[in-house]
Receptor for retinol uptake STRA6
Amino acid sequence: MLPFICGCLLGLISGLFLLCAPTSPVNFLDQTQHKALAVAVFGLVFSKLSVLVLAPDPLPFSKDTPQEIKEYMKIIAIFYWPTLYYPLLACGTLHTKLGYVLGSLFSWTHFAVLVWQKIDCPKTPELYKYYSLLASLPQIGCLGFLCIKYPLLFLKGAKANGSEDLDSSYYTDYVKLILKKKKSNISTSIRSDKPKLLETITDTVKSYIYTPEKVFRFPLKLAISAFVSSIAVYQVALLLVILVIPTLHIVRAGIDDKFPFLLEGFGIVLSEDRTEVVQIVIHYTWCLEVCYLFILFLHVSTFRGNLQGLYRGDIYNVYNCRKSIRPSQTGLVCWMGFIGYQAAVISLGMVLQTLVFFICFVWLVFLIIIPVLYGQNLILFQVAAKAWPVWLTLILAITLQHVTARFVFIKKDAGTRDLNNRGSLFLLTYLLFLINTVVGLIAAIWRMVITALYNIIHLGRMDISLLNRAAETYDPAYCYYAHYLKVEVSQSHPVMKAFCGLALQAASAGGAGQKMQDAEEGIQLVNQEKRQDKVINSRRVQARWQLLYTLVNNPSLLGSRKHYQLQPSDSFVNGTNRSAAAGSKKDASSKHTAAEAGSATPTAAATDAAATAAT
């Protein structure tokens, strides 16, 4: 009852204060707000939802909830807990010391009540005696962070109240970076197009690891999504460990001298010594537990690449058709539900991954590893050995086709390739028709296995579609991700923000802004005797025209222009521009820079202009 009373009092105080607040208390997802506060509160609410799913009493003021109304109570709790924690989020949007004081009061009160509850009653009856305590650790961590963050904001005072959006140097630094002249690397240009094996492995590993870049800032909702996803991984891992690991302990404790007779019933004889068999099974059961814990980790790390691609107008990297980067009804719905979708998808994907890989590892251990190490009862290998004539025939047929295709049926003449010995090619195709049918059956089975494993592995990722490029619109998770990116890019493009910041600076400058406007229109009002002022104004004009020219030629805006919309559809194949796909791989870096800069004028002058604009 104490949490309910405290929540009512805090809600009443915060409601009265927020109604009288000079600034909007609902603007907490804007880029000008404190991002860490929003991340912590969203993580707190999601952690509470995770505990709420298995809680016997969803609401704090309802004890011994009857089974008939428990589902209704859970629906009410879904709205009750976000409302209770909303003041923690709203106090940070006020940018006043009074707001920080109230935020400190609310966070310390919630933190004290939660810690007091866990100390007073650490054990709970559901699933595992310490499950409620372990599941509440993210809540305690988020509230503890808020208890420290709000007092720090109060001590900073005016330094923490300034706007960080258009006044931030991030956008001007971003424009400078894309207009900066890139150093040509001769060794890279003359290097072979085919990468080495070590480079391929290194690039593959790096693609799954997020490495910070010099000038790039994640949007607020992506930061919230990443933090909530990490909490989802923890909660699902905790639930799976509590459900499976004790069961494995019970199985391992029940293994005795009678267990070898059970294995002998399946034709498995690991050793003549029964005690040694028991130790073998216990050892590999422990290995299952360790490997089970290792497969709980998941990597999601391609948000930045897609964002930067849309920044420079690479629409076909995310969509399979022409899209205008602007808000829409569907886009706003997906933008609102993106964080919840990401948490739910990664949770379900983790459960399925754990189940599938656990079963696969059991088969691997008991059908391959144990028989191979002890050299007895190679059941799987015995079945394969009985069909060795079939496997040998298939291998020889495939090898024959590859060898003849390379040395007999293809001829090289003056640097070109053409077919040779067509009659022999047709005859061999006819003779190997039935064998290729059997090979096709094996390939179909392998295709099904690979497709299933690939989709299960990537089920937790919303940034890639699990369907074909032409059918990706039927993948709801990917559609949410793609529409979310469309709204995010249209509202937070760094070049657009830099242009708006310069425009606001010119408007706030008063007379100086009017002079710059006259200079842009070609009216020379500067006195010829003021040589220094003339140089400064000319550089300002150059900087503003450079930025305007960049915006006009920005590829991310081409989709909304008439000449772009009237392009023939046959210039695009599989969602890829033919002219863009025709370039070689070694030109990718130069095209990347040119596209992002928006076909700007010479980079040396543009760099000087951007530097002048930043000042």
Observations:
- The longest helix spans residues 329-374.
